[in-house]
Amino acid sequence: MSNLSPKRSRRTEPAPPPSRRRPVDLVHLARTTHGDRQAEAQILALMARQIECIGRGLPLALPAERVRLAAALGSTARTVGAFLLSEAAERVVAEDDEAAMAGLQDALDRTATFLRTLDAT
């Protein structure tokens, strides 16, 4: 007996562009700033400062403050194109557990390192 039922096609999400695999998607940022390099530099400098401030305060914050800081960071990170950082911050907002905090700290470190490499070039 043959199976006459139509094959179900699996809908797969397209692979993210290579720029999205970096801690900051510079292509997204360039689109956001309409290619204004000075604006990009200023935005990245502000992001670096926010990462430094939140990175210092987050481990010491009470749970409600951690969630507030993570929410603010997530919103800013998404706008700038730091999607991995944004997703990690959103996990803290949703779960606020040790694993989510460790993921956010890792994303903060990776993004800060990436921003420093941009300054060095």
Blueprint (SSEs and pairs):
Elements (H helix, E strand, L loop, with lengths): L25 H7 L4 H21 L5 H18 L2 H13 L2 H23 L1
Give a brief rundown of this model.
This protein has 121 residues and is mainly α.
Describe the structure.
It is a single chain. The protein has helices spanning 26-32, 37-57, 63-80, 83-95, 98-120. The protein is an all-alpha fold and 121 residues long. α2 (37-57) packs antiparallel against α5, α3 (63-80) packs antiparallel against α4 (83-95) and α4 packs antiparallel against α5 (98-120). The protein is globular. The mean pLDDT is 88.
Number of separate strands: 0
Helical residues, percent: 55-70%
- The overall pLDDT, averaged over residues, is 88
Number of helices: 5
Rg computed from alpha carbons, rounded to a whole number of angstroms: 18 Å
Structural key phrases:
121 residues, mainly alpha, 0% strand
